[in-house]
Every structure is written in structure tokens, then in C-alpha cells.
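INFO batch 0412 | record 1 of 1 | parsing
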Amino acid sequence: MGFIAEGFRQALHLIFSGDPEIFGIVRLSLTVSVLATCAAALLGVPLGSWVAVKKFPLKRLVITLANTGMGLPPVVAGLVVMLFLSRSGPLAFLNWLYTPYGMVLVQFLIALPIITALTIAAMQGVDPRFYQQVLTLGATDWQAILVSIKEQRLAVLAAVIAGFGRLTAEVGAVMIVGGNIRYETRVLTTATVLETQKGNFDLAIALGLVLLALSLAVNLALTWAQQRKAAAR
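INFO prediction complete | emitting C-alpha cells
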């Protein structure tokens, strides 16, 4: 049990000592996950809302694919993105392999089906008559969809929170695409794996605690905003 207590002590030391490497890792972790979540939300929320309220051929197939994408193995996503960004890949001109840009891209692909599928589930709770009523008042399709999103904003926000939570805990994809390069692409999850492999369990525990605290703080903020909106209704 001694090394666990030492892990807690080391975590507090890392947080309050202002270690530049640790804070650089924290900053990169947060930046990559937030950017990927925002990009996935900007596409996934409108897409999921449109799929939920509209009638079109193969709608069930699209919903099935979105639900299946929620279980996409991160290492598979990482492998695909790495192949596309590699020197012989079609996106080699971007030079994003082993950079934070590539990490954002792969996390975007992981979060997109999660946010899309959960948004579809949330927006299916909208009464079709409500959507049609908005249309009869002169709104366009997208205006009616935006009104419906506002009506279900708490459930949609929960979808975004779920996407972000998945990304903060992700290891395999960012390690494959980012390479876990010190000072450049090392994030909290990959740093924790590295220190565990090296046998530095005290530091690994400390990094894990910092990751847990960071994830908890961000999700508490999002949940607070969600519940505040719920109380105001």
C-alpha cells in the first residue's frame, strides 16, 4: 500500500510544483480532446438531428452504422488514420502523422459516431407534430431542426459529454498516430502507459490521478451547465 500513498503524494507534488513537462502534457491532453469534441459536436449534432427528424431511404441503416460506430475500437481508428497520413497514404501531404493535428483527427473520428448516435436517440424523443408545427409556421428544415435541438438541448449536451469522456480516456489511437513523442505528442494516457512499462509506478499513479482529476473537473463543469439549464426550465 506504500506505493499507492506515494502515488498520491507524487500527484500532489506534480500539480502544485508547476512542473513544466507535466503541465505541458496536461495542456496538450486537454487541447486535443476539446478540439476533437468540438469538431465532432459541430458535425455530429446537426447530422444526428437531421437523421432523427427526417424520413429518407436507408434511415435504419444509417442509424445502425452510427450505433455500430460507437463501439469502434480506437486502435483500428488509429491504424486507419496512420495509414492515410503515412508517406504513401492519400493524406501524406498534410504532414500530420506524429503531430497533435493527427491526434485531433483520430479523436474526431472516434467521437463523431458517439455524438451522432446519442443525438439521434435524443432527438427521436421530439414529438413529430412539434417539428411539423414549426415548419408550418414558415421555418426552413434547418430552422425547425435548430428549434428541436433547443428543445432537447439537455440530452444533446449529454451526448457531447459522453463523447468527451471517451476521448479523455483514449490511449491506443493517439499513441499510434501521435507516437508518444516527448514534449510534442505525449498526453496523459500515453505518458501513464509509458511510465507503467518503465516500472515507475509512483509516477504512473500520479499521472493517472491528474488525468482523473482533469476529466472530473471538465465533466463537472459540463454537468453543472446541463443541470443549471434543467433547473431553469
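INFO post-check: The mean pLDDT is 87.
INFO record closed
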